[in-house]
Write the structure tokens for this entry.
Amino acid sequence: MSKIVLGFSGGVDSTVSTMLLKKAGHEVYGLYMDNADEAARQCAIDTAEFIGVPLTVLDVKAELERNVCRPFTEAYLRGETPNPCIICNPSTKFKNLLAEADRVGAELVATGHYARTENGRLMKGMPANDQSYMLCRLSREQVRRTVFPLGGFEKKQVRALAEEFGLPVAHKPDSMEICFIPDKDYIGWISRRAELPPAGDFIFRGEVVGRHEGIHRYTVGQRRPGLIDGRKVYISRISAADNTIELALWEDMFKTEVRARDFNWLIDRPAESFRANVRVRHTKWEMPPCTVYPEGDGVRIICDEPVRAPAVGQSAVLYDGDTVLGGGVILPSDR
């Protein structure tokens, strides 16, 4: 079979992925991308030794800072809602996997993502765990050289396989936080890196209705505590220019038109409008049919059914059935 370099964290997903590839006859090399978490690094080293896979530890702190952490901070201070995993995957994770593959003479790389590749196309994984949304900015070459061993499994099946294989990480909890903010304290993390925005006004239907504690503390779609005229209200727009946050009622949070810039096509760019489905956040349930109009480096998307609170800085990802067509960064909506 073939040599494969696998992104190895020592968690249940990457470890089961390794075992599946080894059982299929592949020669697997692990690559651990070190972001200064000593306990996580040692866990990866110990787990790789347990299953008998050579592991390279690569220090990615400076690269992660340049490619992911700094853009993430800057986006938050602009009032956007960035997704660091979508930024990291093409610029750091898969870039380094392919560099390591070239170093050891491997054609393919792999990760424990719940997605699939087929004939050079990026495809959805099983519905319960699909992570294809997070991979929308991979290049076509990165997709061509990647395999996802878990694409046909659900998480509960993967944990069962881990037990069957006798892996010590079979019951290791899933990592739910951003890798560079393990304590989930976004505000503290940003405050150590930049000057925080000051307090400002909450605006509801053109009127000031209160004060916020800084735009970096809020995201579009989030509920603001308290009621206005007996109704719940939600963050609908964040403006760094005048340091205001606009509020809206639930029914006013839905948009039919979504525009996205810097669209990364995983197919040949269509010359004309076409039909697809769209996700505007990493959810499993909201994926309406839409008509897509390519415009410059981006797209204009008209949804058959409105989507809730598309957030500036998040990604709009297009699908044709199970195939990922690409993704772009959501722009502010017209008022």
In short: The chain has a mean pLDDT of 93. The helical segments are 12-23, 38-51, 61-77, 84-104, 140-144, 155-164, 186-191.
